Amino acid sequence: MAERRIFSGIQPTGRKHLGNYIGAIRQYVEGQNRGEAIYCIVDLHAITVPQDPAELRERLHDTAAILIAAGLDPERCILFRQSDVVEHTELCWLLGTVTAWGDLNRMHQFKEKAEQQRELVSAGLFFYPVLQAADVLAYRATEVPVGDDQRQHIELMRDIAERFNARFGELLVVPEGRYPEVGARIMNLQDPETRMSTTYGSEQGTVYIVEEDDAVRAKVRSAVTDSGTEVRRGPDKAGITNLIEILSVVRGVAPEEVEREFDGSGYGDFKSAVADALVQYLAPVRERYAGLRGDEAALEATLAAGAEKARVIAAETLADVRDAVGIGPARA
Ligand code: TYM
């Protein structure tokens, strides 16, 4: 096994936004240079809340095209669709038997999502974190690049792996979360106390990865700031702090450097600089996306090839797990 095996998952729901890009996708791309990288588009997670079936397939292709446009190279990583590898669901069930009900009941994201459901809070939504643990543990991944909102899910998967190993022997790898130093929590531009997300927060405050230049500029220019004048980070300056972090990531410099450069500038000039930099950052991704998205047969072929490689790894883990748990015939 490679020394470093990186695994992460992303949902094929909504339009992917700058938070996904800065918090996660950027790390996925970089992961390809650091180890064996495996990335999964998690359609089974998506259906824990109601989805329109036809739209779900569209979004899955959107997400695959965005990931490739952002720099995932199917020759250098494994990119696949979760539902193509049935081992995820089987391992989910097996891990469910070593997961504390009380732990699932404490998950913030479950509570938040449950509150938003009008008709049904599905048992699948409750089990969501167990499936997420199965995604990672099936590959014995060592590292999981994610944004800050996934911390609790990562802690839970570590606990599950430890409990499984304590009971059945050291079969699973206890993975580490990897959070970006800057940009692990990108905030909504209109409501900088709330994380940027497609499910909550205003559309005007959410910058999409695939978005026209003018719309990106307008959203950044109308970002909510504060009544002060200084371009620096601070607890009472959530809006400006967010923009500083965004510019820092986009330019690849430390946030302190951004603060130094804009020392004495007004918010208007600063916002224009952020808008320009962001447009330059996203435009090439959008252009590549446009070229990739139309060829669904090619996207499907990439996902199928990825699933084939993923299945080989996951099947090996599952064979060990089944054997250790004592289900199915004994291994010869
Ligand atoms: P999802 O699809 O909601 O988000 C994908 C990734 O984007 C990050 N992210 C953010 N980062 C910074 N600022 C934000 N505002 C922001 N919003 C989203 C998320 O942290 C995530 O890394 N449960 C996961 C999907 C998943 C998964 C996995 C992740 C399923 N199985 C296994 C890792 C490993 C989710 O809903 O991500």
Brief summary of the model shown:
With 332 residues, the protein is mainly α.
Q: Looking at this structure, what is the CATH superfamily of the largest domain?
A: HUPs
Shape: globular
CATH hierarchy class name of the largest domain = Alpha Beta
How many distinct domains? 2
Terminal CA distance reads: 23 Å
Q: Enter the CATH topology name of the largest domain.
A: Rossmann fold
Sequence of strands across the biggest β-sheet: 1-2-3
Mean pLDDT across every amino acid position: 96
Main sheet summary: 3 strands, parallel
Number of helical regions: 13
Flag low-confidence runs.
none
- What order do the helices and strands follow? EHEHHEHHHHEHEHHHHH
What small molecules accompany the polymer chains? tryptophanyl-5'AMP
Number of strands: 5
Percent in strands? 5-15%
Radius of gyration: 21 Å
Structural class: mainly alpha
- Fraction of helical residues: 40-55%
The CATH architecture classification of the largest domain is: 3-Layer(aba) Sandwich
Describe this structure in words.
With 332 residues, the protein is mainly alpha-helical. The chain has 2 domains: 5-178 and 296-325, HUPs (Rossmann fold), CATH 3.40.50.620; 213-290, Tyrosyl-Transfer RNA Synthetase. The chain has 13 helices and 5 strands. The protein has a 3-stranded parallel beta sheet, with helices on both faces. It has a two-stranded parallel sheet with strand order 4-5. Strand 4 (143-145), helix 8 and strand 5 (176-178) form a beta-alpha-beta unit. Helix 3 crosses helix 12, helix 4 (87-96) crosses helix 7 (123-137) and helix 7 packs across helix 8. The longest helix has 30 residues, at 296-325. The protein is globular and about 70 Å long. The model has no long low-confidence stretch (mean pLDDT 96). Bound molecules: tryptophanyl-5'AMP. Tryptophanyl-5'AMP binds at residues 8-11, 19-20, 22-24, 42, 45, 132, 135-136, 144, 146-147, 149-150, 153, 184-186, 195-197.
